[in-house]
Amino acid sequence: MHVTKVNTDLQRERDNCTFNITELTNILDGGAQKTAERKLREDTVLKQLYNTTDVPAIYLSHKEKYEAAVKKACAMFQMIRKLQEEENAGMENYQALLGGSLGSAILGDGNPITLHYVMFIPTVMGQGTVEQQAYWIGRAFNLSIIGTYAQTELGHGTFIRGLETTATYDPSTKEFVLNSPTLTSYKWWPGGLAHTANYCIVMAQLYTQGKCHGIHPFIVQLRDEETHMPLPGIKVGEIGAKLGMNGTNNGFLGFEHVRIPRDYMLMKNSKVLEDGTYVNAPSSKLTYGTMMFVRVMLVNDMCNYIAKAVTIATRYSAIRRQSQPKPNEPEPQILDYLTQQHKLLVGIASVHAFKTNADWIWNMYNNVTSEMESGDMERLPELHALSCCLKAIVTADAAECVERCRLACGGHGYMLASNLPLMYGLVTAACTYEGENTVLLLQTARYLVKSWQQASSGNTLTPTVSYISRVGNGRRSPPWDNTIEGIVEGFFNVSAGKIGLCVSQIEKRQKSGMSYEDAWNMTSVQLISASEAHCRAIILSTYYKETQELVKTVSAELKTVLLQLVDLYVVYWALARLGDLLRFTSISERDIGQLQTWYENTMNKLRTNAVGLVDAFDIRDEILNSTLGSYDGRAYERLMEEAMKSPLNAQPVNESFHKYLKPLMQGKL
């Protein structure tokens, strides 16, 4: 890589940084060894797969985008296969390339093979029998077949019980017959389904011996393994252009009496015997596993996107100079304006807060999963409630943060070459997939209402809701304590207060003769608000507590900065939720004034280290893929270089001039 001169403003920011950037990078990666492994992997992959000579993908047609995505995906997976043989590594290589920033650097706007690894293989592993795993996993791992996962339909998404695709068992041939009885029963959305995958896990209503047993997973072959032509009875195609993810190859799928062998139903949990007898799963909760795994992964994924967006916007804010607040003085860097710091610093703190929470819930997920395997399901509902609200809040915050970073870059942020619009398309999609956010918050609310009722009857609650017993049930709120611990406690008061109000609203409405379902619906806006408050309290509390532990092991300089980030994040959210705090705690006008000053002073302290903090995310230029955010700060030169790649700049006069403009201007049209 040839070394270019770094923009002087940006270099000065780095020289003024008060902590060791590498120390922070190592902490974020999970140790110096992990940083070294990541850098090596990035070097290897980018050297072979990153190509800047092509016409930028934004100028390709929809069809060309897909073809380019397949070409790159194939090259990438050949490479993973090689890495596996050399390092004998497992799924983490896939995760690093697919979930991490690396995959998005190479594939940009979506990958048509992601679902093969993220949904198809994990579902076979989680729901297939040992024999089924032996048969399918080997073929899937070395990509002899490519699979996807088809659950969502044209007429139903998050409400899985409402899916209409049917799989009816025929004991005379020992086969299932799959059928799409209506247009709305067509599968709609699965990535890679349109033209990439030749196999698919289909979620369908199981019918046997005249009875429906609900949704079950079936493996269905979609295309001929040699010619790739769709098999008889399979109606398959692509759903069209979208706000983002246009390389993902999202498809539709309909069945006309398609027959599959009996053992293509995944039967680890529920079974259908040869004569058609249905054998129930030992627990209906066992199917939660895959969904929770993907939601936990998503929290990490969102951290990567926020880190990218704030890196771009912070570096650009260091090199961009604008306005003249003081006469006869040079234009200041826009990073010096407090309003700009207000847009960016909370984004930097969010990465740390979410990363901490992602690691914390990942540990919890592993503990609960091992308890489940020994038959203990007690903590499962708690983990389910947590993974639902965390997924919802983190994806919503990520979308807001990427958009705020785009706005922080002014007009240039609107350029696709800044990479912020494309990133927004990818992040806002996550607010819908793997459970639409509003629906997920209502799932968490069910758990919170139940917990409140248990606390009222004097039962002990699981750890993440135990605060309800402590601060709930209409107790007077204690005097306000204007410290980080005090604010976190205040957020638990808000959450408990909101849950309590929801419960009494529901009961009041039932007393007036409403059904429970109607009372729930009438209270649902408040229920969502209660779930959000619960999740905020958990995020703030976990971030604060885990950082307190972390700073015991770091240098004094870094400790100061990490604690400033916690202060900034917690106080930011206190100011953002003042209405709630005024309603449910004893915070006063004077306290609010102090919080505002505290927030402004903390921004002031962090200003010196803003560039150092984003440098510590250590995201390479190829991964940022942004004219505004490169390490050397040559934003204007890169904008011009990128503009020259537009096909419209290939010739000085476009043919439309002779065809339309000239006749119009000469009055001859």
> Which class do the helix and strand fractions yield?
alpha+beta
Question: In the CATH hierarchy, what is the architecture of the domain at 149-282 at level 2?
Answer: Beta Barrel
Rg (C-alpha, Å): 27 Å
Uncertain spans: none
The CATH homologous superfamily of the domain at 149-282:
Butyryl-CoA Dehydrogenase, subunit A, domain 2
Could you give a short account of the major beta sheet?
Answer: 6 strands, mixed
Distance between the termini: 53 Å
Assign an overall shape.
globular
Count, helices: 23
How helix-rich are the residues, as a percent range? 55-70%
Mean pLDDT, rounded to whole units?
92
Could you give the count of β-strands?
11
CATH uppermost class of the domain at 149-282: Mainly Beta
Structure description:
This protein has 669 residues and is an alpha+beta fold. The chain has a domain at 149-282: Butyryl-CoA Dehydrogenase, subunit A, domain 2, CATH 2.40.110. Helices cover 56% and strands 8% of the residues. The chain has 23 helices and eleven strands. The strands form three sheets. Strands 1, 2, 3, 5, 6 and 9 form a six-stranded mixed beta sheet that branches. It has a three-stranded antiparallel beta sheet with strand order 4-8-7, with no helix packed on it. The protein has a two-stranded antiparallel ribbon with strand order 10-11. A hairpin with a 2-residue loop joins β5 (199-208) and β6 (211-221). α10 (338-373) runs antiparallel to α11 and α15 runs antiparallel to α16 (516-550). It is globular and about 90 Å long. The two termini are 53 Å apart.
